[in-house]
Amino acid sequence: MSLDLALSTILSPIVLFFVLGLGAALLRSQMTVPEAFAKGLAIYLMMAIGLKGGVEMSKAALGADIAILALVALALSFLLPFLSYWALRLTSKMDRLNAAATAGHYGSISIVTFVAGTQALQFAGIPTSGHMVAIAALMEVPAIVSALILARRGLKKSGEVAGSEKGELVREVLLNASVVVLVGSLLIGWVSGEAGMEKIAPFFVTPFQGVLCLFLLDMGLSAGRGLREGWRDLNFGALSFGVYMPLISSLIAAAICSLLNISVGNATLLITLAASASYIAVPAAMRLALPKAKPSIYLTLSLGITFPFNLTLGIPLYILMAQWAVG
Amino acid sequence: MYHKKRLELIIEKPAFKRACRVLEGAGVTGYTALPCMAGYGGGKRWQRGNDLSASRDMVMIVSILDEDILEKIITEIENLIGSHIGVISVGNVNVIRDDRF
Fold first, then answer.
1. B24 at the A interface (CB within 8 A)?
2. Chain A CB contacts of B76 below 8 Å
3. What is the pLDDT, as a whole number, of residue A167?
4. By C-alpha distance, which of A146, A275, A84, A106 is closest to A92?
5. CATH number at residue B78
6. Per-residue confidence at A154, pLDDT binned at 50, 70, 90?
7. If one looks up domain A2-153+166-326 in CATH, what number appears?
């Protein structure tokens, strides 16, 4: 049964389209998805998942268990970068600045991995709650604060970069496209409820899976090109971090889930969020906050290694972990 | 014809607004920004649109300005390029309307 579940996840069209894009990029295919179209797809997917989550939230009252889950999620996002930083420094001998910037990515989340996780659970017939979208949004930001603490610890305070403006980083972190679209759609779905969703379902519900396939084809191309261009900057310790860190984070999250009153579906999503690494919100924030850190290091790891690992092998494993922890 | 300076700044997209603030703060009368397609630097090729964060995209800012203004901003631009990925160059140009720059 567990093997069937793992196989059906790996052989789903979503994952296979991702693998197609990844393989094409690694084989140096010239295929591209137009940039503006890919960005439009990302906004569509975030709107769809936010709306769906909001509608689900409107059906149930928010209780203390959700508040506890939110606190756990915030704590995971804040604390995982410290562990990631220590692991990176230990196994790859990476310098402080790059280790801190990379660690921030591993406390924050990948919304696409989260969406793939919800789809895998849906295929497996395991229900999830709408409020997990809000939990995902909450986990985007605290890791960035941790990365800044780690990067500035023990370093001399350097002067401000010319043209910097007070509040620009806060604005970038709290008002980046993924947070605005995700939280905004969640609130719209919550307010408009089932009746409102029915009117837009032909656009946001029915085509969702097909659009996700298209988007993941592009993500595969991005991941493959990132890996092809960036792997030379990383030693074996750093490259292996991209695989062992999600496993460590997922084990910690699974252990926490075993202590919470949480369903298998929600536990899988929390584990998936903890194991995922950001490649949208955090890189943009790091370019402003820690411009001397190398994007080729943290983007290669989060987008080129961890994302493909989570999408292909990680998610089936996280479902099994959740079943073991709370089932 | 009047002699002016042409400032060309190729900078990573996340620092684009910082560059704009430096130029505007010094009283530059205008500039134009263009997206960069692809390039090579630091031993690596790069291409726009390869990641959703757009944090590796580059932007080119072109501004025609008076030499006095250029001297005023050059230190700040150097500071910006010292922190962010980018290239700066300055050339001599001739313009027809002196009062515009």
1. no
2. 162-163
3. 85
4. A84
5. 3.30.70.120
6. low
7. 1.20.1530.20
